[in-house]
């Protein structure tokens, strides 16, 4: 182990402290900050990001990285590789381009926030064209440095090591099977007796108590994290201090409850990263696909299962003071609500059956945008055609079409596929975990997540960035990432209606 | 204006952003952070402080400061002087000494937290001796660089420009007059009918609503700040984002209410600093004495006046749902409670009459400790003698004696006098403001602080660090800082019982 490597560890530990500070300040911005502080906070965050960039790209960092030889320890070696990757990405783009892109996305996002409400695509278009132009420029430049295609260079920033060639076959299967599958699911659902959802009000204070109870049940350590409220739910914070948020609707407790379970999946990943490597690049979570797999594994795979619904029903009843035996409040009824499928326009509101369709549309479009095969002017109609071909719906306006998501206005191209890949990985992880550890399934039926969490700690969380997402999925499940486990899961839960799905 | 000066402004703006980050992270630590994150947060804060120190002491800063010539604009010129002051202080001490002192104070503070509860001075003594030894060493070294005596070098770190020679005559007057004054006040108080304090419970939620209402009444801008709960109340946060805290007792609403009014005084100062200079050294608040003068001006001078108590009483009644006309809840009764005087052992619980006695004792002792004329071993008995001679009380144990405050274990010598100087300045500011703007007094009787705030904006808040504390007091009041206004105020309110005191 070289002196240069040890020196790099110290430098990256300082960057990790700065990341922790940025994490808490960003959480505070969404959850605590008074509105009049927004402008100043924006400046503060930009300054800290700038300091972070300066520290990472300082000349002595390049010298140390050139000097360091790969340590024998595989984690140290992976750590050095990840340091090099982060340094290369940080230094790949000329400062002018970075700043121009930051300004263009900030401007576009601002326009989007008002133009979306009135479906005013014409107002958004010039700003979005700027963002796309500068993102393409950055993708080409980054790709040249990394030896990747422009789209792969973008993908790699959210999911290190993932390439378009990994995604295409997975998504091709989905594209082929999904429309028919959705049709079959809806047919069967229509044949079942109607659901009568329990009616509220469901006081926020009680929803909050229930949310915290479920977080603890899943294994969330309340001494190292918090639950709060924000407009857009997220999981953030810092190492050893994982903070999730939700938002409450007093007429329906299910969205907040499932949102908390989703974010708890993210949080358990962050809480399970190896302590010894918390301050180092290799100790970070392994990218967006793995992160999303962990939230979906909890929310979709386990917490919408019939067995968990049966365990959950009496706890929900107790939380809202419902008398035991009240019709419509048992596990069967709750389960019907949790697995209700309904094709719709809005991605973030979609059920797990129709969700991938939203991603397939966006994936094809953003590849075409980055390749220069699609113009922003043609985006709305191309988007609407895509939704129609996969979900059979006619998008009524751009607010519910290509303007619904913040990602593209923010310059986040290459991010969407991770959501669907995460759903695929979650299904694979569930099969593997429950096969390898037969005690997991009966434990979940008792509300006990400890055996599952133990498997995840070993096979996913504890590995951090010591291997690629693809490798971690392969090692944990014995097969490469593909759509088969996901499709089998949908078939079992929604077509067969298997009791253990 | 030189290029070097402009470059310095940019560097110091980055330091100000870092200070904002540290401010929010420190607030979060006391108010929001889950307990398991404490160790990591400690590391993060130390790392950011280290980065701040590195940035301030980087070689190019010295070069720029040497190169810069005083700009013609008086604020820019004061800004450059304050930059030089901060740089000189940061570079004055050898790193070894800074680190040894940081470790010694951290260790001593930790021991103090447990030893205090059992009055175990023997356990504290070695650690406190280390802190004193290293603080003296630092004071000597700092004093040599600054051309100041060791004690003045310490004073200057909390109150730029204030010297022992400014304090001694003020405190000599207090020392001569206070014991007799306290006796007279207590005699008169004993001659008045007994108070029957209203009894609770006073629900926290209602105390909180009342607190926020009073904050707004005084001029606190809720879009640029917050009120929360912490174990030790404070006013912190960042520029444009001023956050105060309090703690609640359901049996007595007065401590939290007066605490909020006190911290609001601090907050109004921070909110009133000149916007154009927020990111620069000259734009910061002008030291501890001025800061304390602002909290005491609100809490003690105005909010414990009879006129304000008369305005306040019906609002307090409404807050707690008390029927109008309930005996013991009118302005006269509330006022009696707000101005109750009782010599006691604990500084932070002291009323405004006996408070300076606590400071006089500490001031003499810490001067002697720094001069080497008093040993830590002799501190407890010297402390107890001091309290006896000024307050006539026999200190029963060190918990209620020299171990009650965190300041000395934390290495904060030279801090205490600012509290009493702040009380003197507050009395002077009140007289000056009410004389110069006759509308202030009748406005306060209507709960309207706007005319007062306007005077403070011009004469105190808006001046930031463009002049020394002494100069700001002199300019605002027409006289140098002294004890006369404070003593006259005590006499009017507590001996004469004047209606307008």
TrEMBL record, chains A, B:
Residues where Zn(2+) binds: 262, 266, 292
Active-site residues, record numbering mapped to chain: 263
Cofactor comment: Binds 1 zinc ion per subunit.
Top-tier EC class: hydrolase
Family matches, as PROSITE patterns: PEPTIDASE_M32 (PS52034)
Mitochondrion listed as a keyword: no
EC number: 3.4.17.19
Keyword Phosphoprotein: no
GO molecular function: metal ion binding; metallocarboxypeptidase activity
Cofactor(s) it depends on: Zn(2+)
Pfam family, one: Peptidase_M32
Keyword terms, alphabetized: Carboxypeptidase, Hydrolase, Metal-binding, Metalloprotease, Protease, Zinc
Catalysed transformations (reactions): Release of a C-terminal amino acid with broad specificity, except for -Pro
Entry-linked CDD domains: M32_Taq (cd06460)
Gene3D superfamilies, per the entry: 1.10.1370.30
GO biological process: proteolysis
PANTHER family with a match to the protein in the record: CARBOXYPEPTIDASE 1 (PTHR34217:SF1), METAL-DEPENDENT CARBOXYPEPTIDASE (PTHR34217)
Role: Broad specificity carboxypetidase that releases amino acids sequentially from the C-terminus, including neutral, aromatic, polar and basic residues.
Stated family: Belongs to the peptidase M32 family.
Protein name: Metal-dependent carboxypeptidase
Species classification: Bacteria, Pseudomonadati, Pseudomonadota, Alphaproteobacteria, Acetobacterales
